[in-house]
Amino acid sequence: MKVHFLFVASVFLLAGMLSFRFITDHQNNRVVPDNRSFISCAPPASLDLRPDASGKYAPVFPGWGTYSYPVHTSSDSARLFFNQGLNMYYSYHLTEALASFKEAARHDASCTMAYWGQALSMGPYYNSYVYKMPAAVLPVLAQMNRAAANSTEKEKDLVNAINKRYSTDTTDSKRSELNRAYAVALAALVKKYPGDADIKALYVDAVMLEHSWDFWNNDGTPKAWTMELVNDCDEILKAHPEHPAALHYQIHLVEASLHPEKALHNADVLKAAMPGVSHMVHMASHMYQRNGLYAKGVDVNQAAGALQTEYDVMAPNLKLGVFSLTHFNAVGSFCAMNANMYKKGGEMAGQLHHILATDYKARLSNTFFQYLYMLPMFTAIRSGKWEAVNAMPEPDADLHYALLLDHFGKGLASIKLHDTAAAGQQLQALKGLLKDSSLPVRNLPFNAALGSAKIAAAILEGELFAAQGRMDAARQSLKKAVVYEDELIYREPKDWPIPARHFLGAHLLKMKQASGAENVYRQDLALNPGNGWSLLGLYQSLMMQHKTTAARKYQPAFKRAFAHADELPPASVY
Fold first, then answer.
1. Residue 347 to residue 144: CA distance in whole angstroms
2. Rounded to 10 degrees, what is the CA torsion of 84, 117, 241, 9?
3. Which domain of life does this protein belong to (predicted)?
4. What is the CATH classification number for the domain harbouring 483?
5. Inside any domain, residue 453
6. Last residue of one domain, picked from the residues 291, 311, 346
C-alpha cells in the first residue's frame, strides 16, 4: 500500500475515549445450527456440484483479475482454472472456487494443487461460524495425497499443511484443534518461504477462521491476534499492491475498529482489480459505509447484485441462486438510508423483503432475517416518511421480532403525527414482546435480537416522554438506548441501523443543551466516521453555542455527505 497509518498508536489513543462493545463472549446462548451454519454475507461451497452438458464443471468467469500462483502442471487449462479457483476462494465465492478446482483436475488429473484447492474450498471459512467437515472431502484428500508424489517441495508442504486441517473422524469432534494445527503448519511455511505472499495470505485466512469477527475488544483495542494479521496484510500489499486476499482480509480485520480508514484504499483497489466478482465489488461497501461514503456503498452493492446474476446465468449447473442478493440489498439499503436516499433505499429494501418473503421464507424463523425483512420500515423511519410507515402491513403473527419492530416504527410515526395515545399502545405492545423466547437467542457470532429490541423500546419510550413534555425522563430513556447500542457486537449491516445518539442529540438540542449535544455527536462520529446526520447535528450544536467559526468547518462536510440525498434532513432524526 502507498499510504500507511500510525494505526496501533491511534487505536490506543482513541480507545480510552469511548466505552462500547464490538465483541462479547462467544460462548453464551449457543444455538444448534446445521453442519455449516453461515452468515448471510456469503454461503459455503455447494457440495452437490455436477458438470454441465458438455462435461465442464465451470466456465471461465469474467472479471476475476490477473493474479496468479505457479503450480506444477503441463496443462495451460488446468493452470487457468486453478488460478480462477484460487481467486474465487480469496473472494469467498466458494462454490465457484470448488467448481474451478474440479475443472482444473478435469484438465490434468495429476495436478496436486487442483485437489488441494478442492480441499481448501470444502473447509471452514470466515462466514461459517459453525462448521462440520463434510465426508466428501476425504476422497479429495486421498486423490491429493496420491498426486503429491510428483509435486514440487513447496506443493508437498502445502499438502502436508492442509492434511492437518482434517481427520478421518467424520463427527469432526476436534475441529478447533484441527484449525489450530493447520494455522501452525502454515506459520512454519511462512518462515520457510518468507517471500511467498500466498502462503502468508493463507496463514492470515487460517487465523481469521479461528477468530471470526473477533478482532477488537470492548474499548476498541485490538485482540491479541489482530495486529499480526493486519501487519501481514500490509507486508503482502507492499510487495503485491493488488493481492486479492490481502485486500479482502484486511477490510474484515479493520472494519470494526475505530480506524476503518486504514483499509479505505483497499476498497477502491479491490473493486478495480476484480470488477466481475460480486463479493469483492460488494466488499468495497464495507469500507465505504464505515467511512461515511454511503452513496458509493449503494452503487457497489447494486453492481454486485448484477454481477452475481451474471455468474448464475453463465453457470446454471452450479445453482448459485440469489441468496447473496439478500446481503447486497441489505447493505445497499443500509447505505442508502444513511445517505438519506429514501427512494433508492426503499427500492433495495423492497427487493430484499420480496426475496425473503418468497425464495427464503423459511429463514424468517431467524430473528436476523426478520430484521432484514423489516428494512423497508427502517428506511421510511430514517427519512421521516411517517404516513408510509403507518401504511405498511403488519408482519405475520409468528414473526415476533418483526412485529416488535413494526410496533416501534408505528409508535414513532404516531408520535410524529401527534397521536400519543396510539403511540402509547404501540409501546406497550412492544414491551410485551420483549419477553418472547426467541429474542435472547444469539445469532452467532453476533447479537441476540434482544439487544436491538431493548434499544427500540428505550427510543420509543424516550420519544413518547418528550411528546408528553417529560423532557428529563425522555433524556434518561434515550441515554439507556445509547448504552444498549454500545453493547452490540459489530456486524454489517449493523443490527440497529439508526444510531441512538442521533435521537439523543436531537433531543438535547430541543432542550437547548447544545454542549451536551455536541459531545454526543462527536462520540457518534468517532463510531460512525463521516456520517452526515451527526455532522449536521454537530454543526447545529456549535451554531447554538455561537461557535460560528467551528461550525462552518462542518457545513461543507454534511452537505457532501448528503450530496445524493432526496432532501437535506432538518436534524439528526426527523
1. 47
2. 140
3. Bacteria
4. 1.25.40.10
5. yes
6. 291
Q: Is 323 exposed, middle or buried (0-12, 13-18, 19+ CB in 10 A)?
A: middle
Sign of CA dihedral 61, 65, 66, 70: negative
The model's pLDDT over 391-445, given as tens digits with 9 standing for 90+, comes to 999 999 999 999 999 999 999 999 999 999 999 999 999 999 999 999 999 998 9
Domain endpoint, select from 291, 318, 353: 291
Confidence of residue 2 (pLDDT cuts 50, 70, 90): very low
Phi/psi at 424 (5° precision): -60, -40
Q: Directed axis angle between helix 244-254 and helix 76-90, to 10°?
A: 10
DSSP character for 75?
-
CB atoms within 10 A of CB 241: 15
Would 298 be classed as within a structural domain? no
**Number of domains the chain contains:** 2
d(CA 53, CA 215): 45
Q: In which band, very low, low, confident or very high, does the pLDDT at 16 lie, cut at 50, 70 and 90?
A: very low
Region of residue 101 (phi > 0: left; psi between -120 and 50: alpha; otherwise: beta): alpha
Amino acid in the structure at residue 522: R
Classify the C-alpha dihedral 279-284-286-292 as positive or negative. negative
Assign 517 to helix, strand or coil: helix
Residue 502: inside a domain, yes or no?
yes
pLDDT of residue 45: 83
Give a yes or no: residue 52 inside a domain. yes
Residue range of the domain that includes 252:
7-291
The Cα 131–Cα 212 span in angstroms is 12
Instruction: Give me the mean pLDDT over the 16-41 stretch.
Output: 37
Where does residue 415 rank: exposed (0-12), middle (13-18), buried (19+ CB within 10 A)? Answer: buried
